[in-house]
């Protein structure tokens, strides 16, 4: 198997494992319409593409998994197909993103406990199917009441007009909210077509609607409710939603121990060698530990078994998703490629992993998946976990050594990380 083929298999396996096994509260629901007709007219509509893509890439960049959800599930009609927009162009060219979108989850089948937030993209279609969808209302209420964040842009707040909290109050009552204005609806010639005027309905529900000049970006943050006025506001809503998540972590999350996400080819117990090392340290944070591992120039200062670290693609010395690098360890010259890269976010673990390999024939070829996880725990503590799974004859030899040299070496690495982080405070 060529390296490129192997790399593709590892990446695909990693993504599939992440989607199936990702821990709760590290994902965002992106809600889109299932409705494709503008009322009784012959005009088509759907989810407005830039309101999807601008948010989608903000969420991915921030380290969140994004799952699409719609009232009916499955295919999602689209509107505003402007491929001059770079995010739209990238999304339309991404076969996996397209597959993901058009296999949207059905709202009635989604478990709200698996998500940090829900974001409602607009497009005129939502005016017909969002407001009265009981499943979307239930998801919104549950995510909000479990401590999550609710976001919506343009016509997306139509999803909120009938959402009531457990105490009977409308979610938007008394809150500053932005959405597609009556003046904007009139300007686009749809005020007599839509089933209701969004701005007016929000005011009826007790919202304090805030408006900006026509089609200008405008975002309102009201606690854990983030809304925007029009398509130009989508990126801003997504950015503020992420910022709100970082400042409002889930209160119960600190007691949750997270796990490494494994590509199927490296599942522990199915490979030739495996080791796991973990420490919990008081007085440090995941961000402080991350800073020491992310900068590879620091490795030799606290770990004696790493040297000659070089990057092939000019992206170093800090790690990044897809970065190619090499280093010497255990006498092996190891090539590496970063396959997972999730920087620390308040309330969520930081994750980084790389596929490493040593070139050679059947007797000398070695392949590994080396993963790290850092998470903040209550009481000012941080958990540092590293695990490695290996295949190949060299791995078989390491597994028979007593004690396993990998366990001893990785213990030095994680303890060195903690010492270095303390020294850098």
How would you characterize this protein structure?
With 425 residues, this protein is an alpha/beta fold. 31% of the residues lie in helices and 24% in strands. It has helices at 3-21, 49-61, 86-92, 95-101, 126-129, 134-145, 182-187, 198-204, 234-247, 286-294, 299-302, 393-400, 405-424, and strands spanning 27-31, 47-48, 65-70, 78-79, 105-106, 117-120, 149-153, 176-177, 208-209, 219-222, 225-228, 273-282, 307-311, 324-329, 332-342, 350-358, 366-377, 381-391. A seven-stranded mixed β-sheet has the order 5-3-1-6-7-11-10, sandwiched between helices. The chain has a seven-stranded antiparallel β-sheet with strand order 12-18-17-16-15-14-13. Helix 2 (49-61) packs parallel to helix 9 (234-247). The longest helix has 20 residues, at 405-424. It is elongated and about 75 Å long. 45% of the residues are buried.
